[in-house]
Amino acid sequence: MREEPRLTISAVLPPIVLAALALAAPRFGASAYVQILIYYFAYYLTLGQAWNLMSGLTGYVSFAHGALAGIGAYAAVMALNAEWSLALGLLMGPAVAVVASLLIGATSLRLRGVPFTFATLFFQELALLAVRKIPQTGGPGGLALQDILPIWLPQALMIVLACAATLLMAGVRQSRLGIRLLAIKGDETAALSLGLPTGRLKLAIFCLSAAVAGAAGAIHGLFTASLYPDVVFNVDVSLTSLAAPLIGGVATAAGPALGALLYVGVGELLEIFAPGLHTAVIGLLLLLVILFMPSGIGPFVAARLRTSARPTNAPESAAHKAAE
Amino acid sequence: MTLALQLLVNGVVAGGLLALVALGLAVIFGVMRVVNFAHGEFVTLGAYVTWLLAAQMGLPPLLGVPLSFLIGGAVGWVVQAIIIQRVAARPSLDVLMVTYALSALGLGLFSLAFGGDFRSYSAGPSGELRILGASIGYRSLTVLCVCALLTTAVLILLRSGRLGLALRAVAQNRDAAASSGIDVHRTERVAFSLAVGLASAAGSLVSLIGTTTPYVGHDWVLDAFVVVVIGGLGSVTGAILAALAIGLVQSVCGFALDDAWAKIITYALLYAGLLVRPRGLFGEQAEV
């Protein structure tokens, strides 16, 4: 019997401890500014994990995750404005995002590689254009949340969601599903000929990842309390969701955390020292990382540490063996 | 009748420009199997070069077309030689992300250098020509003629001579081309440089009939992607025909409804097309 690989304590503990610390930050006197930075770190981390679940594991690059989050935000805010309860309204975010992902997935997942990426890019544009046109969504002027909720609520929810998404990524990565998805990434034809239901696997992980993106969008809708289509459906949101894992380390659970940290950190520094340079610097950072650290900063540094540790260890162990 | 003719004229002008942008994308994809997300930034480059020329230096804007082609081609040569060639052998995700990062970098640099203002100039051809009740501005007519000229030149180049042969050979089978003595890397550099040169030339024309912002190329390139996908990835003739078709659809829908609906219908048609023919209308070979 095959045994499913288990999650180790060392994989589960750090995100939970970090989330607990982040939740407790206001008690330790963290300023409102620091709390907002923590919130954005959690938001980018969640988006990054959502993208990572789909694109990191299968190699199908999605540009639609910003739109999926935006759809989640609109669904939640519209439900809450229609006097739905908070829990139900928030659940509408992931629910509608999953429906949207079924739509994109069913039409475009049979396209391998590049055409799929195109299809998601067009979906992002289509969502923006449609939301600007439909009167129910407020058109180009946007939509405001009618009951403003206390700001700690979305902040806490986003921290919990980021932690859950990271654990989900770690869990899926270790599970049989994750290994099958990585097999698709490696060689889809081979995976198919081994009898893997690649179509269903891809659609399943796309829906799961859309649910995470939709939930992030729903909570972000509570946080900002007003939705402007040009902001919510900006391609930059999709860029953010893929920049975090690509910079930190694709298909790993820790990578997006590192990426999101750098993204927020570099973004804040630029905001202070050179506000106009933001897009250019993020582009340059992404370019340099892909050129020189193809698997992301996290795995690159880990590999460096291993190789620099080896020369000191190797002679010793050889000597031990010789002695025995 | 006049109305139909007018819509046709508008559609062909937009389609011609779109064809020029999409042609480059199709050549890059065909020869190198690379999706160039940074293509739009080369359109923007051409637009700003021409704006600088016409509005700042007082030179005729049409001079911007060859100049943009040369500058774009030179930048493209360098980008291909020092960046894209480095990742070409890696998984397609890496190549995609490199061109995407280049696009973000370009967008950021243009925003920094020129700000978000709408730039335009009044130099260049003006007035309009009336044929059978339909009117076509001399600017649009110029754009159309230059587009037709450049497109024909590229088609001839691809179908004749040693260079065209090399380009087609690498597109068909890279390894076989290399083993029969074709310098594949050089051919790829030529292809990339030519394609982005065309994008910059198209950008120069875009500045002639519209306004220039850091996002101008981004808007054009999305439509060009639609064209390349519908035309069959890598198919040059498919791209040209699809560009004219999209130009006409947007012209008619834009009149009957409005521009936003025209775009929505374009993208919806694209999704329907992908469902029916995943490889595009004119695509012959399987996705690599």
Characteristics of this structure?
heterodimer; A: 324 residues; mainly alpha; two-stranded antiparallel ribbon; B: 288 residues; two-stranded antiparallel sheet; 2 strands
Description:
By secondary structure, chain A is mainly α. In chain A, 77% of the residues lie in helices and 1% in strands. Chain A contains 14 helices and two strands. Chain A has helices at 9-24, 32-58, 65-81, 86-108, 114-133, 152-174, 176-186, 188-193, 198-224, 229-232, 235-248, 255-273, 278-292, 297-323, and strands at 143-144, 226-227. The longest helix of chain A has 27 residues, at 32-58. The two termini of chain A are 37 Å apart. Chain B has 288 residues and is mainly alpha-helical. Helices cover 75% and strands 3% of the residues of chain B. The interface between A and B is large, with 40 and 42 residues.
Tell me the total number of β-strands of chain B.
Answer: 2
Global shape of chain B = globular
How large is the count of helical segments of chain A?
Answer: 14
**What is the SS-derived class of chain A?**
mainly alpha
Question: Per DSSP, what share of the residues of chain A sits in E-state strands of 2 or more residues?
Answer: under 5%
State the low-pLDDT regions of chain A, or none.
313-324
| Major β-sheet strand ordering of chain B | 1-2
Average pLDDT taken over every residue of chain B:
84
**SSE string of chain B:** HHHHEEHHHHHHH
- Terminal Cα span of chain B: 46 Å
In terms of structural class, how would the helical and strand content of chain B be classed? mainly alpha
